[in-house]
Amino acid sequence: MAGLRVWSVLVTGANRGIGLGLVRQFLGTPSPPAWVFAACRDPKGQRAQELQNLASKHPNLVIIPLEVTDPASIKAAAARVEEHLVGSGLNLLINNAGITKLNSLDAETLENMTQIYTTNTVGPLLLGQAFLPLLKKAAQGSPGSVLSCSKAAIINMSSYGGSITSPSGWDLMQIVSYRCSKAALNMLTKCQSLGYREHGILCAALHPGWVQTDMGGSIGQTPAVTVDASVRGMLKVLSSLAEKDTGTFLDWQGKVVPW
User: Fold this and answer.
1) Confidence band for 174, pLDDT divided at 50, 70 and 90
2) Sorting pLDDT into bands at 50, 70 and 90, what band is 214?
3) Cystine design at 137: which of 14, 65, 89, 250 (Cβ 3.0–4.6 Å)?
4) What is the pLDDT of residues 219-246, one digit of tens each?
5) What is the pLDDT of residues 102-121, one digit of tens each?
6) How far apart are CA 126 and CA 246, in angstroms?
7) CA-wise closest residue to 157 among 224, 207, 119, 196
8) Which of 124, 127, 246 has its CA nearest to residue 195?
């Protein structure tokens, strides 16, 4: 992670799992960001207790209320972040919040498909739109024209399950709505990379691995990758992303994932 130098970062879904792990790692670096914004649905609730404990020890950590399916909540979050930044931009937006529901192909429903697509795909779209002015400001304030996560970037947390090329995992879990939402998120990432490149913003999708989180363990088996290992790997990947990587889909070890 030595090459990753960001003034400010926002992580959604930051109260547990990978999101909380990212916040911990950013705070624990030798030169932590001046601002780490940790967004979650209920900052004062029991499920955000660990985040609250961290905030009490780190004045550069700000917990932001955010419901990623609510445009008004997203707009309010962007306004709060802008207040703290006081004229500077946001270097890194990590769209980590996501949900899944186990369901077979024959039992999938309109309600599930809509809810999961709205959270996993539409949410990152709306967040990218809302924080675009702050990302552009960060890019404009960074020297040089080369894209990087230290300059300005949107990172969307995707999944190998969203790969259309690979059927891997189908026998293990037929999570149709989740797979479809992540395939769509990959396309959104590509669209963002094309649309925001002119503003100096790098966009990429990351597969964190099959991680030991509530979501990762929801199928009844223990995932192979710990949160700490996944997060450390992803931050190392982020530190190495460059112009050639915008619009790509990589895993937590930096390997290209088939679309």
Assistant:
1) confident
2) low
3) 89
4) 555 667 899 999 999 999 999 999 999 9
5) 888 999 999 999 999 999 99
6) 19
7) 207
8) 246
Cβ-proximal residues to 175 (8 Å cutoff; 6+ apart), any chain = 100, 101, 102, 103, 161
Q: Strands across the sheet with 92-95, in order?
A: 61-65, 35-40, 8-12, 92-95, 153-157, 202-207, 249-251
Say how many CA atoms lie within 13 Å of 164 toward its Cβ. 8
Give the residue from 182, 138, 158, 144 showing the smallest Cα distance to 34: 138
Check: CB of residue 138 under 8 Å from CB of residue 88.
yes
- Over residues 125-153, the pLDDT tens digits come to 999 999 999 999 999 999 888 999 999 99
Those residues whose C-beta lies under 8 Å from the C-beta of residue 37, and which sit 6 or more positions away, are: 8, 9, 10, 11, 62, 64, 81, 84, 90
Record the pTM. Answer: 0.94
Give me the chain's average pLDDT, please: 92
State the Cα angle at 24 between 256 and 9, rounded to 5°: 70
Provide the strand spans (E) within the chain.
8-12, 35-40, 61-65, 92-95, 153-157, 202-207, 249-251
Q: How far is 61 from 63, CA to CA, in rounded Å?
A: 7
Q: How far is CA 235 from CA 50, 114, 147, 202, 207, in A?
A: 21, 31, 16, 15, 12
CA atoms within 13 A on the CB side of 98: 29
> Quick check: helix, strand or coil at residue 98?
coil
